[in-house]
Specification:
Layout lengths: L20 H12 L11 E4 L7 E4 L1 H8 L3 H17 L3 E3 L9 H4 L12 H21 L15 E3 L18 H18 L7 H7 L3 E2 L2 E2 L2 H7 L31 E4 L9 H11 L2 E5 L3 H4 L1 E6 L9 E9 L4 E5 L11 E5 L7 E7 L10 H8 L14 H12 L2
Parallel strand pairs: 9-12
Antiparallel strand pairs: 1-2, 3-9, 4-10, 5-6, 7-13, 8-10, 8-13, 10-11, 11-12
Length: about 400
């Protein structure tokens, strides 16, 4: 997969036009002063005079893209910047690569009708499956997994332990559900086995029956992986298009269990999400991606509470000093903080139906009794009907959400 140039991890430019760079960068500073974030990427430093005599890092990547932006893009950014200033929000926006697509095209989280009611039985299966897997590991003399994570800590980031795979790019396909599922699984595999893998999102898209480029859901992916194995991306590279499931694929990556963080709640509590992050690793979650989310370049996205969702992402950490979750997206490194975003606790419906997945040990075969449990709980590795919205319906849904 081709990688985009590395984007700076500092708060990004909120740019009002191309006519006067001095005015542009002064307005950026008024919005973003004091939000500097060190992620260790190359930047160019510009000293500007503002009421606070602030200094910030300006990303050459976003600045260069803005120079090529159409008047329509500049107008959209101006409108977003005005809203940010008016509401005193704490994030910046710029011309991200995600803005090259209509928002409704790249937000494909569509929950199947039968999954909202499945929480209690799914977690009962997960608890039994995890117990079987743990006992099987003991019988086979596998060392216990030591998770260096404390839910009481003020901040935590799975990347610091080398358990998060690189940011990927779903392109113009609404396959966020696919990338959220595989991102959580790849981290679970790294935690369990100490090995970084690159699973084939294309195989999941074409074979799992969990969705299409028009939308889908991450949980059915893990249902499918209970009885099927995923190949490496090198075997079946991603194309950002729906395709027929290839015959004869022989994969190696399956799962042994998955569960809801809180089967009784749409969005679990902050404490419950932290506990699950420590117990299981990065979590697949849904979120409401707005035009501001699409143009996000830095700071903490804090648009406020919302009741809907349209996008799937992966939570990899938190920071209580920011009151925010650290989230891995699948819109390439040309979006956000090199592909990541900070979202305030409780904002944008973040964490909706948070779920975890468990990867097996690569040193032993999967406990055969897991398959007895699948039959016991009547788990069918195929989702119920997924309602795919037309672009017009998705736009109406988003506008209704933004009005609240």
């Amino acid at each position: 997969m081709q990688r985009l140039p590395q984007a700076n991890a500092y708060p990004r430019a909120a740019i009002s036009g191309r006519a006067s760079l001095t005015i542009i960068f002064a307005s950026i500073l008024c919005l973003a002063a004091g939000q500097a974030n060190a992620e260790g990427m190359t930047t160019s430093r510009m000293m500007m005079t503002t009421p606070a005599q602030a200094q910030m890092e300006v990303s050459p990547f976003y600045a260069n893209r803005l120079r090529m932006a159409s008047p329509q893009i500049v107008q959209r950014l101006n409108a977003l910047q005005a809203q940010i200033a008016q509401r005193h929000l704490t994030f910046t926006v710029g011309y991200t690569t995600a803005m090259d697509y209509p928002l409704e095209q790249i937000t494909g989280a569509r929950e199947p009708s039968n999954y909202a009611q499945r929480g209690p039985s799914q977690n009962a299966f997960a608890n039994e499956a995890m117990s079987l897997e743990n006992n099987y590991a003991i019988i086979n003399h596998l060392p216990p997994i030591v998770l260096m994570c404390n839910a009481a800590s003020g901040a935590f980031d799975w990347r610091n332990l080398g358990k998060v795979t690189p940011v990927k790019d779903q392109g113009g396909c609404g396959s966020c559900w696919d990338f959220a599922a595989t991102a959580a699984y790849e981290s679970a595999y790294a935690i369990r086995n100490g090995v970084m893998i690159d699973t084939s999102e294309q195989q999941v898209l074409d074979c799992a029956g969990a969705g299409t480029c028009g939308g889908g859901w991450y949980m059915p992916v893990w249902d499918w992986m209970l009885t099927h194995k995923v190949v490496n991306t090198s075997t079946l590279p991603y194309t950002a298009h729906d395709g027929a499931c290839p015959a004869g694929l022989s994969g190696v990556y399956g799962d042994v269990a998955w569960g809801f963080v809180d089967p009784s709640s749409g969005v679990p509590s902050v404490a419950a999400i932290k506990a699950a992050l420590c117990a299981h690793g990065p979590l697949a979650v849904a979120v409401m991606a707005t035009p501001a989310f699409q143009a996000y370049t830095g700071g903490v996205l804090n648009e406020g509470p919302m009741n809907n969702f349209n996008h799937a992402v992966t939570i990899v950490g938190w920071d209580d000093s920011k009151h925010a979750w650290l989230i891995k997206n699948s819109w390439s490194t040309g979006w956000g903080l090199n592909g990541y975003i900070w979202i305030a606790y409780g904002s944008n419906n973040v964490g909706y139906h948070a779920a975890w997945v468990q990867a097996p040990s690569n040193r032993i075969v999967i406990n055969p009794h897991i398959y007895d449990l699948i039959s016991k709980y009547h788990l069918i590795p195929n989702p119920g009907p997924i309602h795919e919205f037309t672009p017009i319906q998705r736009n109406m849904q988003m506008q209704q959400q933004l009005q609240h």
